[in-house]
Amino acid sequence: MNFRSGFVSIVGRPNVGKSSLLNALLDTKISIVSPVPQTTRYKIRGVMHTHNAQVVFVDTPGMHALKEELAARLNEVTLSAIDGAELLLYVTDVTRHVGKEEQDIMHLVLASRIPVIMAFNKIDRGTKCLSEYTDAWNQQLAGFPAAKDPVRYYMPVSAETGKNISRLREAVIGLMPEHPPFYEPQTVTDFPLKFRIADTIREKLFLSLKEELPHSVAVIIEGIEDKRRLCRVSASIYANTDSQKAILIGKNGAFLKEAGTAARKDLEKMLKKKVYLDLRVSVLKNWQEKPRVLMELGYTL
Questions:
Q1: Cα-atom radius of gyration of the chain, to the nearest Å?
Q2: I want to staple 61 with a disulfide (CB 3.0 to 4.6 A). Which of 53, 74, 204, 270 is the partner?
Q3: What is the extent of the structural domain holding 151?
């Protein structure tokens, strides 16, 4: 039996559903999801196993046109994930119009000279902008006269409803080279546990925060005491200002308690044991602009 395996980088602009699509492809939750751009801040690997193939999907932060230090680091993470991939899964949101940010990503994808599957995501919400993406792609292609079209499949999908996810899996496997597996059969992700826990906490905060605040929030795991029946986790939540800290805590600690309870439930499912979660909120002004802090928080992983 010929076995296929390889690496697939999931790319696209922020909030197009890359993390949701990864979770749908794996049929398990690996990457956090929220309506807020910059939710994914790491390069996260999720491993799909079948009887004759293993596909390592690399979920990346959305490419940002922003110039701030954090956005620059996120773009670096994305670019590093493209290097060495056998395939790019280029995800678009067909409910949003094509803009300059999208055109820049198309240019990057085309210049990489890596085979591509273009996934038109969120078709369950309508397809009013779908033709814009094919037109914009053809315009980009015309700017590379010596290049062949790297798109192997144009595929409308819905990560939310599961439409065409099976077809997408089959298409991806068919484009993988013959190669032995890279990971053991039980491995679902190689994303370090402390970052998975931090991301779970951050997701619950994001889902309830005001739109402008999530970009000012970071979570760092200070300690994990993992025993057979109980995992104790202590985590610091960083905000930029005292007013943001007050929002994160909430009146009489209500907001922090609610987010912590939701995170604990998810962590207990993930770890398959009871979890004790100790959350503390601190002010760390302008942490997004400090390379040393970003490195300590793991945003260069």
A1: 20
A2: 74
A3: 4-174
